[in-house]
Amino acid sequence: MDLAIGPYQGKKTAESALLRSMLSSLRRGDIAVADRYYCSFMMIALLMAQGVQTCARKHHLRHSDFRRGQRLGNHDHLIVWTRPKRPDWMDEATYAQIPEMLVLREIRFQIVVPGRRTHTIDIITTLVDPAAYSKEAIATLYGFRWNSKLDIRSIKSNLNLAHVRCKSPEMVHRELWTTILGYNLIRTTAAGAALLHDKQPRQISFTSTCQYVLASWMQLSGRLIDQANIDSYLLFTLEHIARCEVANRPGRLKPRVLKRRRHGYKLMIKPRNTLRKELRKS
Predict the structure, then answer these.
(1) pLDDT tens-digit profile of 134-187?
(2) Which residues share a beta bridge with 29?
(3) Residue 181: its H or E element
(4) DSSP letter at 79?
(5) pLDDT for 50-98, tens place per residue?
(6) Measured between alpha carbons, how far is 146 from 133 in angstroms, rounded to an integer?
(7) How far lies 226's CA from each of 40, 220, 235, 241, 262, in Å?
(8) In terms of Cα–Cα distance, which of 100, 118, 102 is closest to 110?
(9) What is each CA distance from 236 to 70, 128, 182, 196, 202, in whole angstroms?
(10) Could you tell me the maximum CA-CA distance found in the chain, to the nearest angstrom?
């Protein structure tokens, strides 16, 4: 829906600074699901000022003590965070509008997978009403955060945005937004196929959808399909897209290693012209 671009070094390069620059993209009533990096007092306060709820994993430097606070259930209680000192990036006027205390809800749940070690996760959220938002519902909500990781992987790997090819900042912006436009069109096509065939959009393979869309463009651009048969051809394509379901493989484990060996050349750590001069001298 939106993204932020910052300089490669210096100020305003951190992810939290980039997120603050795009808070206007969120609307009142939205729920921001984030990882532990964004679980800070100031970030939650800025989101609450816009009427945006938060569900984030607790930062690892914060201590948890479920013996304190208002108990709501097993490993479920209300806690109070106090306002820290004004950070350097925040002006005095904004800091004065930040509340001195935040009443937040902290829950702890465990991920149990047969054959693997139990994983414990602590969640901080502004959804403090246990009657409206159960502990299990919040745990399920945070579980959907992993979809963002998969989406970024699809954008980088399948759409080849891991390395931009343009040189100027203006063209890099165009390349980036054009890729995002293509990504949204692919996801919309998969969602349409899922709607027609009574499936969830996440069940359909993103890579297969890309392949079918590219194949259909070749057919339509080459005028291999009659104008009268376009509707039936598109429905036929959506039917095949809906058949390409992603396999459900819980507990999948893959090592973080490279399979393909790249060339054994040294890294280019000097300008190309400098390296050419050195080659001529030698």
Answers:
(1) 999 999 999 889 888 888 888 998 898 888 899 898 999 999 999 999 999 999
(2) none
(3) helix 169-196
(4) E
(5) 999 999 999 989 998 999 999 999 999 999 999 999 998 899 999 999 9
(6) 20
(7) 58, 9, 14, 21, 46
(8) 118
(9) 57, 47, 21, 11, 20
(10) 77
The model carries a pTM of 0.79
- Could you write out the DSSP letters of every residue in 185-207? HHHHHHHHHHHHTT--GGGB-HH
Measuring CA to CA, which residue among 74, 16, 77, 23 is closest to residue 51?
23
| Residues 241, 234: Cα–Cα separation, whole Å | 10
Residue 251 burial (10 A CB sphere; 0-12, 13-18, 19+): exposed
Neighbours of 48 (CB within 10 A): 16
User: Following CA atoms 80, 85, 91, 96 in sequence, which dihedral angle do they give, to the nearest 10 degrees?
Assistant: 50
Both tokens of 12, joined, read: 């305003």
Residue bearing tokens 């949204």: 184
Per the CB < 8 A criterion, the answer to whether 59 and 39 are in contact is yes
Residues 6+ apart with CB under 8 A from 106: 58, 64, 66, 69, 76, 77, 78, 79, 122, 123, 124
Rounded CA separation 184/195 (Å) = 16
- Determine contact, residues 188/209, Cβ cutoff 8 Å: no
Instruction: Answer whether 66's CB lies under 8 Å from 45's CB.
Output: no
d(CA 45, CA 104): 11
Residue type, 250: P
Query: 159: which residues sit within 8 A by CB, 6+ positions away?
Result: 179, 182, 183, 210
Burial tier of 222 (Cβ tally within 10 Å: 0-12, 13-18, 19+): exposed
- 251: nearest Cα among 81, 114, 105: 114
